[in-house]
Amino acid sequence: MTVPVPLLELKDVHKAYAGVEVLHGVDLTADRGEVIGVVGANGAGKSTLIKILAGAEPMSSGQLRVDGEPVTLANPHDAHQRGIRTVYQELTLAPQLTVTENLLLGRFPRRHGLIDWRAAHEQAGTLLGEIGFGAINPRKIAGRLSVARQQMVEIAKALVVEPRVLVLDEPSAVLAGSDLDALFALVRRLQDRGVLVVYISHRLVEVLDLATQIVVMKDGVIIATTTPANTDEDELIRLMAGRRLEQIYPDRRPGTEKPALSVESLTRKGEFADIDLTVHKGEIVGLFGLVGSGRTELAHCLFGATRPDSGGIAVDGTPRAFKTPQDAIAAGLALVTEDRKGSGIVPGLTVRENIALTTLHATTRAGLVDTTAQRRDVETMIERLDIRPAHCATMPVVRLSGGNQQKAVLAKWLLKQPRVLILDEPTRGVDMATRVSIYRMIDDLARAGVAVLLISSDLTEVLGATDRVLVMREGRIAGGLRSEGATEDQVLAYSIGRAA
Amino acid sequence: MTLTKEAPREIAGRPVTLAHAAIALVVLALAVAAVTTDAFLTQTNLTNLLKQMVTTGLLAYGMLVVILTGGIDLSVGSVVAFAGILTAGLSSGLPLPVAMLVGIASGVLFGLVNGALVSRFELAPFVVTLAALTTIRGLAFVYSDVPIAPEDESFFWLGSAMLGPIPLTTVIMLAVFLAGGVFLSRTPAGRSIVAIGGNAETVRLAGISVRKHVLLAYTISGFCAGLAGVILASRVGIAQPSVGVAFELDAIAACVIGGASLAGGKGSTLATLGGVLVLVLINNLLNLYNVQSFWQQVLKGLIIIAVILVHRASRRRT
User: Which residues form the ABC transporter domain (chain A) (predicted)?
Assistant: First the structure.
């Protein structure tokens, strides 16, 4: 009799980039039908580990075994050959093509040498149905789907040929409601069929719920391996952060009665209608809504990135009609968008230049950018927001981890000293420790008199970090409640139209 | 003086390698040429060389600004012809400086139109400037389908004046690069142009007008092409409606040799000047070695590919 060999084995895996080691010897053993939950703070090495499993980056030293056999994954194709599929956080779909084309690219059914479109759509539809994503129409253009649905198509793409190992990097970050349920059901079904799922998430509750084994990473090593039965959220947070976080959300002190941002029956056809809302000075108002409820569109309109069809916006009591984001910024508004890669950072530039972007025209001397002042301002922000590494000002912004990139985006707006700060999903894909510091910072700003509109699809956050919550559904405000004492069920009920 | 996209002393890695690859090649070519032929280091040849690089140099700087936004300007060769022939034509009736300013202004105007079509109507830069290439070439022939050779001696002055050992036009070109380098690396508008090529949406939401800066980029390219056209006509002493065909390709090549990314957001002023030197030296040396002009084209193409491969390799390493 031979000893059964595990499906996947990592032994003493090291990885260095340009001489700097970021993984210091990772060991991991996982078998068929397991769900490995991987948690860890920004820069803990999760993304690097994923890239190595995906064949996107070679390891510097160490060993990877599949079925006990040492393998080298030189590129993603090698990983696919071994049955390892990876779904990244970033969307990689071809936005102009249909869902079917995205799913079946390279393996279209043919008839007489030509693509048999009817069979292709049928095949794609069957696949989506089988994995519980039947709500997605395969004939639709991928780019026209909501971000949530695009993420689901990404997952479906990895399942066209059933993998043996499925790596999911923050799959739930953009999902909510029934989409989220569909994802969980899928993970469980795959598990039953003997697929090994590696599930990376910042949402600890999810990991505790789904995983058979939890791996905690910190500073490039696995510092703990445990099971949901033997741990809880508090312990995981403590392990990840290296210190006990007594409280994730700061105690709120109510804001003032002075309206900073007032919106009256704002309407933009096809996006949202009859929006009334007020955010007072020093107040944090949460705006909850499922993906597609119109919250992001509303944020863009408030910021002058799009123009409303009717209705009005007033800042500090003065009616304003923003034609461009410049107008909104001039009136004291700032917007941190939900799409960090698409509209938050400029990838080619350094951290400093990214942070200085909003104040480029303000810090000049004799027509030239005053680099001394710029450097000083940016250094102050890096220190204040604790962006890591501390000497990152001259590094390309893309070298930072996701959470630190987000802090850089925040820094860009804080330099502008806004009176109204709109945050659209500011903690998406951001680890717990960074979240905590972001919540602290928002609280500090509110205490200093800034009005904050916090858009989020995270129920805990939208209740925990705010004074009041407004719920959007199908482009309208479906309800509002005070955060204190409100329950997640109440908020959810408004968002799906079941409130009493 | 730092003329690169990001100040080299701040990022030891990338921008320095960009510039260095191009410049190393120039130095190598210079060394080979100087050692192996007597003809290279003569006063006449060097002066010629300095004059020859002016047109490509001016066009390349304008092209770089446009490429940084993620665009392209294919119309510059036609603008060279139009600005030259307009200046020559007007010089018979107007004072020469006025004629020259009008010639340059015509380039600015074409740049404005290109920029407006790209930024205002969101048309693809390739298509807009391709249309401009043929339209402006046509306009040059409409203005005069025969070459115009002004008889007034002063017409040649700009193209032949020397400042000590250096042609005046070379000094003008270097001044454009110096001012242009400062513009791109130190002014808010220049930094905005670089950022737009990196991510236009981020820049727009940061409260910076993308349209205005894209318009500015094409206008700068038009200005450079107009200036190049006036200088070329003065140097040759005759303005031809057919001059400047495929000049845009040399300008693009110079930017690319200098490490600029055609996707935008990445490129350096100093390295582009290096790219110009590389191109001009290739032509000059191959002429001195009496290499047939068809083979010159082949070699130029191969060298461009080689330089880009060097860039790629140096980027991989970092």
Answer: 8-244, 243-499
Which has the closest alpha carbon to A419: A328, A298, A296?
A328
Integer Cα distance of A48 and A401 in angstroms: 11
Tell me the one-letter amino acid at A387.
I
A345 neighbourhood in chain B, CB within 8 Å:
199, 202
pLDDT, position A449: 95
Residue A285 bridge partners (DSSP): A453, A468
pLDDT tens per residue across span B2-28 = 343 433 333 333 445 555 666 677 778
Q: A169: Cβ–Cβ under 8 A, 6 or more apart, which residues?
A: A46, A47, A50, A86, A87, A88, A89, A200
Q: How far apart are CA A316 and CA A260, in angstroms?
A: 4
Under an 8 A CB cutoff, do B186 and A329 touch?
A: no
Alpha carbon of A416: minimum distance to chain B alpha carbons (Å): 10
Nearest C-alpha in B relative to A304: B205
Contact of A360 with chain B, judged by CB distance below 8 Å, is answered with yes
Which has more pLDDT, B259 or B59?
B59
Contact residues, chain B, for A343 at CB < 8 Å: 199, 201-202, 205
Among A17, A327, A357, A414, pick the best mutation site for testing chain B contact (most B Cβ within 10 A): A357
pTM: 0.79
Q: Which fold has domain B14-27+51-317?
A: ABC transporter involved in vitamin B12 uptake, BtuC (1.10.3470)
Quickly list H helices, B37-165: 43-68, 76-90, 96-119, 125-143, 154-160
CB contact under 8 A, B209 and A326: yes
The single-letter DSSP state of residue A358 is G
Of A305, A325, A349, which has the smallest distance from its Cβ to B195's Cβ?
A: A349
Question: What gap in Å lies between CA A40 and CA A38, rounded to an integer?
Answer: 7
Residues of chain A with pLDDT under 50: 245-246
**Rounded to a whole number, what is the distance in angstroms from the first to the last CA of chain A?**
63
ipTM above 0.85, yes or no: no
Is the pLDDT at B62 greater than 80? The verdict is: yes
In angstroms, the separation between the Cα of residue B149 and the nearest Cα of chain A is: 42
At A14 the three-state DSSP class reads strand
The one-letter amino acid at A500? A
User: Chains A and B: how many Cβ contacts under 8 Å?
Assistant: 84
- Domain coordinates of chain B in residue numbers? 14-27+51-317
Averaged pLDDT score across all residues of chain B: 89
Tokens 């917007």 sit at which residue? A335
Q: Establish how many alpha carbons lie within 13 A of residue A499's alpha carbon, considering only the half-sphere containing its beta carbon.
A: 19
Residues A189/A192/A193/A199 CA torsion (nearest 10 deg): 70
